[in-house]
Amino acid sequence: MPQSPIPKDSSYAVSRKSHRNDAERELGMATLELVSQVVALVNIERSRVGLPPLTIDTQLNSAAQEHSTDMAVNDFFGQIGSNGSNAASRIRNAGYNFTTHAQNVEAGEETAEEVVASWFSSAEATNLFRADVTNIGIGYYFLEDDIGNFNQNHYWTAVVAKRSPEGVFIPGSEGVDIVEGGEGSNLIAGGPESDSLYGNISDDVILGGGGNDFIDGDQGNDTLGGNPGNDTIFAGLGNDFVLGGQENDILNGERGNDSLYGDLGDDTLFGNLDSDFLDGGDGNDRLEGDLGLDTLFGRAGNDVLFGGVDLDYLDGGDGDDYLEGNEGADTLFGGIGNDQIFAGIDNDVVVAGEGNDYVDGNTGIDTLFGNAGNDTLIGGTEDDLVFGGRDADFLGGGVGNDILNGNIGDDTVLVGAGNDLAFGGQDNDRVYGEFGDDTLNGDLGNDTLIGASNADLIYGGDGNDVVYGDFIDDSLVAGLSPDSVAGTEAPDTLYGNAGDDILVGGSEGDLLYGGQNNDSVLGGGGNDTLFGNLGNDTLIGGDGSDTFGLQLGGVARINDLLRGNDYLFLSEGLTFEDLVFQQGSESNTSEIYAQFPAEDTLRGGTGPLVTGSDGKSARNVLIGVVVGVQAENFSSDNFITTFESDTLAGTSP
């Protein structure tokens, strides 16, 4: 997005430099250790000019961290936030009442030494050399995949201020303390033991200390930090900022739009009511958004993320994660690792990420995307869109009228119940129909396509494909390369298309079209209709009374005419002397019918081969009985005429 406007006041100086990105650096925000390093370096520079040191204030840390995160996530650089906030409003929202303040920002510097050196070598140094400020807060955010308009990966903010006199500081002792803040804005610090620290109705800052602490912010917009130890923190009412610390913490946002950061360790974060931001940090974390429009980042580790009610955003990050959207139209990203993702209720969007992931759309009209890795993608109960990724994926439509595309890789696509549309995609795929009237497309590659229990339409596509119908009336179309197409136990329609195709009709009365090249067309059982089309085709009727359709522009060889009463359909302009017949091994006689348009006259040799008794062309006429002979061409010697009023004419070969 465009850079936010920068006020002319010198207290809002900005430095903007380009530096190398470090993809190996850990993701996330400022730790207390990093904040201490930056502040120590700032105080060294202040001491050189005789100024007293600044002390760290967690509320100022919160205001600075909010702005660094905002710049990184919302892709901009400047003093004004993406929501129009300025430094003063962010400091007040953090609960810090001040008499004076200033802010510096930086992007691209990777270390505490680099960012402090940059600030003190520019006009921003005047903010850090101010004698009328006493406190400092540092915010830092590292965005690894920084791919927007402003890409610096590292985003820094420093806030300096002087607190109004009403603030109260309550330190803990060396023992186990129970500390409760007063009515005003309190700064409460725990000691080295396991303390219980309670805020009150105002905007409090509570820092745990060295033990396993219990912290309750109560009302107000609080800033709560666990520090070392396995801490339990309840944010209470208000829009709170909570940082767990270095070990295994439990963070509960309760009411308000809270920001919870687990930091290091195996943490558990609960957003609870309202719209919360949950960041597990490193470790195997559990995050639950609950009510509100929540944003959950698992980060590094094998994390468990639950979205809760409403529209949530879940990102597993690195590691083998478990994600569940629950209610609401959610957006879920698996990240890197072998993830399990369940979209939940309503209309969700799921991107599997890198690794071998399992994705289940569950209920709702879902859109599922595979990615790198061998993914399993199941659409669920509604009309879903399912797209494979870059490797060998399994796609299942589930219930509903789904659209599935295997994309890149040797994929397996099973459409499921409903009237589905499936594409194998690139490479060598297997595409299966199931319940419903399905349309199956092999697309590119050497594919295998199999219909199922309803009336399916199946296209082979490019490549050498194998196409099978099933138990209901199917339409089967070969692709642009040599394909094999087979019907089964129902009246099917088979199309050869380009390539030297093999079409096998199955056990019922099928309709088979050979296509453009040299095809083999086998009717199988039942009363079949076979068309040779272009190319040198072989037509085999098989059992039953079959009809053979021939046309100019191709050469057809017809076998098995002696199995049942077979018909010939000659297209306009084709004559009997263009045909070649080979008698089968059976010795029984077989009736042969000629079927052709009534307005045409078929001729053999120099005269009409068949004419009707009224002198007009015949249609669907029984022209004779072949009497157990081998015949290369028709002649009158090979036929016994059955209609007294008709004349069979021709010349001997």
List the helices and strands and how they pair.
Layout: E1 28-29, H1 32-48, E2 55-56, H2 58-73, H3 87-93, E3 98-107, H4 112-120, H5 125-128, E4 135-142, E5 154-163, E6 168-171, E7 178-180, E8 186-189, E9 196-198, E10 205-207, E11 214-216, E12 223-225, E13 232-234, E14 241-243, E15 250-252, E16 259-261, E17 268-270, E18 277-279, E19 286-288, E20 295-297, E21 304-306, E22 313-315, E23 322-324, E24 331-333, E25 340-342, E26 349-351, E27 358-360, E28 367-369, E29 376-378, E30 385-387, E31 394-396, E32 403-405, E33 412-414, E34 421-423, E35 430-432, E36 439-441, E37 448-450, E38 457-459, E39 466-468, E40 475-477, E41 484-486, E42 493-495, E43 502-504, E44 511-513, E45 520-522, E46 529-531, E47 535-540, E48 547-550, E49 554-559, E50 566-570, E51 580-581, E52 590-595, E53 603-604, E54 607-608, E55 610-611, E56 621-626, E57 647-648
Parallel strand pairs: 2-4, 6-8, 7-9, 8-10, 9-11, 10-12, 11-13, 12-14, 13-15, 14-16, 15-17, 16-18, 17-19, 18-20, 19-21, 20-22, 21-23, 22-24, 23-25, 24-26, 25-27, 26-28, 27-29, 28-30, 29-31, 30-32, 31-33, 32-34, 33-35, 34-36, 35-37, 36-38, 37-39, 38-40, 39-41, 40-42, 41-43, 42-44, 43-45, 44-46, ...
Antiparallel strand pairs: 1-4, 3-5, 4-5, 52-56, 53-54, 55-57
